[in-house]
Amino acid sequence: MHCPFCRHPDSRVVDSRTSDDGLSIRRRRQCPQCGGRFSTIETASLNVIKRSGVIEPFSREKVMSGVRKACQGRPVTEGDLAMLAQSVEESIRQTGSSQIDTNDIGLAILGPLRHLDEVAYLRFASVYQAFDSLDDFDAAIAQLRADHAAAVATADAD
User: Fold this and answer.
1) What is the biggest distance separating any 2 CA atoms in the chain, rounded to whole angstroms?
2) What is the pLDDT of residue 152?
3) What is the reported pLDDT for 60?
4) Tens digits of residue pLDDT in 5-26
């Protein structure tokens, strides 16, 4: 790490702390040459492997943008989308992998989106899973109904 004051090619870490969200580390550094102190923020990189083979950095905004289209006209707020994108990023980072396929991101979106809004879930799933016919929609709706009935039965048993 180059010193921003004298451009010395080395620095020493004086203090390290995790950020509030736990996804980055703030390090306080000191230059051994000029004695200047400065802070750095370190995050683990997460790259997305697109279908074309291109690799680009993960973007919460792209997750929100894709889900926003499915939520158009639905009672879903920007805050809801931000929370969903954060949840998706956290679940992806928990895999421990530094590179992830777009397909895996889509799978990570489906779960939280299903809990957020079932209509938006169906819209997203229809594109993401390439529904070809009404039978695909029927199967997805039947699964939603079965899961809903199971959740109600479990809640009644408690």
Assistant:
1) 70
2) 83
3) 92
4) 999 999 999 999 987 667 789 9
The verdict on pTM exceeding 0.85 is no
Alpha-carbon gap, residue 121 to 77, rounded angstroms: 15
Q: In what order do the strands lie in the sheet with 99-101?
A: 55-57, 47-49, 99-101
**Tens digit of pLDDT for each residue in 93-105?**
888 889 999 989 9
Q: Which two tokens stand for residue 69?
A: 């289209």
Tokens of 50: 């697109």
The structure tokens listed for 146 are 């079965």
In this structure, the dihedral spanned by the alpha carbons of residues 84, 89, 90 and 95, taken in order and rounded to 10 degrees, is 140
**Distance (Å, whole) CA 148 – CA 16:** 46
Strand ordering across the sheet containing 12-18: 12-18, 24-30, 37-43
